[in-house]
Sequence to fold (373 residues):
Amino acid sequence: MKIIQYLLLILLLWNIPMFLSYDITIGSKFSYLTYSLLLIYYFLSKKEKPLYPFLLLGLMYFIISGIVYVGDLEYFNLEFVKFVILILCGAELARNTDKNQLFIILVLGSLSIIVHAIVFQNDYGRYSGFYVDPNAAGFVCLIGYCLSFSVKNTFFKLFSQFILTFAGIITFSRTFLLLWVLISIISIVSHKKNVLNFGVGALVIFLVLAVANYLQLNTVRFEALESLIGDKPKSNIKIVQEEGYRLDTWSVYYNMILDNPYFGNGFKTLSGIDGIKAGVHNTFLMIFGESGVFTFILFCFIYLKMLSKSLLLFNYKSHLFMISFTLISVMLTVHNYFENYLIVLTSIWLFIQLEELSVGEEIKFELGINQGK
Fold:
């Protein structure tokens, strides 16, 4: 069972099926392998109650959007089955995965970004490792960074934060850079000694500047980063800003969403697969626009509940609030939620962690702290 568990964590959290999708045949085989192993793991494991909120979310989204419009029925059916398997079977995988296992897998996965930059430099100047998309790679580094605040060993904590921060920065994901700063600020609220993280961040930035030529970090975004701490003109920062505001992208779909608010416009109609529009790049708007307001309300309820519950536990396990905050923030920039097993599996893991933490345990912890003082 442990072998299957670790193999599944590697396949899912290292994005192996998608990484190998450059060859359709190989990628497809690894995708089938992943979901087959999930089913095997589910039937061999001790089963607990399914995650009904996520199952209901999937049923509502696929049924409502599918009734309204389906372009490719075979693709629709495949995505529906895969999501149900991921929720049903992935829940057992998540229950048996503790934060240390998840953290180690994510740190090792982030190393692939650094290897990509060192061994396979490219003119694009943004690196992603196993994750193909630099923004997805940045998300993995962010979740690992959040989990690092639960690590007790100071040296290992700072070392892993250095790796995750360096890997995240060379993705040149604007979302990563913004959320790294916000998470670091939240961590200081949790514990003042976490101010050291900004020292780690400064060290990483100077290292990135030092190895920029070797790693071919010649993108406009790198030059903008360089301008922030140098005496160069800041015109590149303006260029980065002009690459595309998410608000501009979202606004393209506002009328489409408001024209069909109750049941949406149908499966994948806001995901840019028609090649005419780029996609809404917002999970909340995607669900609202494709499946209507009722699915949207359930989706918001699930994630706001996790955010509020993790906030109540902030003094107890601050990393859970950081993960919840990161998930919601990242979903404001992506529109592939139902096939994004990095986001979905992280969400499942977080949901289970919060469900298992009883109020009684929190009270005992707080009383113990007070008595200790």
